[in-house]
Amino acid sequence: MAVTRRRSRSRSPAKRSQSRRRRRSPSKARRSAAPNVVQAITALGNRNGSSAAAIVKQVSGGRATAAVRRRVAAGLKRAVASGTIQRTRGGYRIAAAKVSFELLL
User: Fold this and answer.
1) Cβ contact 17:58 at 8 Å
2) What is the dihedral of CA 86, 70, 65, 24, to 10 degrees?
3) Each residue of 48-82: b (16+ CB within 10 Å) or e?
4) Which of 5, 32, 40, 103 is a Cys-bridge partner for 58, taking CB atoms 3.0 to 4.6 Å apart?
């Protein structure tokens, strides 16, 4: 008695890799954390600047995870590069020339 092999219906490699890719819709794309960082610094209201840990705590609502810390660090870096906030001794503060109504919302 001959054993017949059942033919599998596997997809082509191109279709397999396409299904494995993670698709992200434009509405769920990650937004920059820089506006949240600016709002947190404003909410903290420290005149000489706020520490990165205090900003992370303010943004996350007290539940800081590694992902939140990374996003806040990236937001801080981006905001400093654009001149929105300034790096001070041990903290960050809003740049005096860049304070506008839009940033404080």
Assistant:
1) no
2) 130
3) ebbeeebbbbbbbeeeeeeebbebbeebbeebbee
4) 40
Q: For 10-22, what is each residue's pLDDT tens digit?
A: 666 666 666 556 6
66-82 and 34-44 helices, crossing angle to 10°: 90
| 9 located within any domain | no
CATH number of the domain at 77, please.
Answer: 1.10.10.10
pLDDT tens string 12-68: 666 666 655 666 555 555 667 788 888 899 999 888 889 999 999 998 888 888 988
Structural domain includes residue 24: no
Range of the domain at 44: 30-98
Q: Tell me the whole-structure pTM to 2 decimals.
A: 0.62
User: Is residue 21 in some structural domain?
Assistant: no
Nearest to 37 by CA among 11, 69, 4: 69
Distance CA 105, CA 76 (A): 18
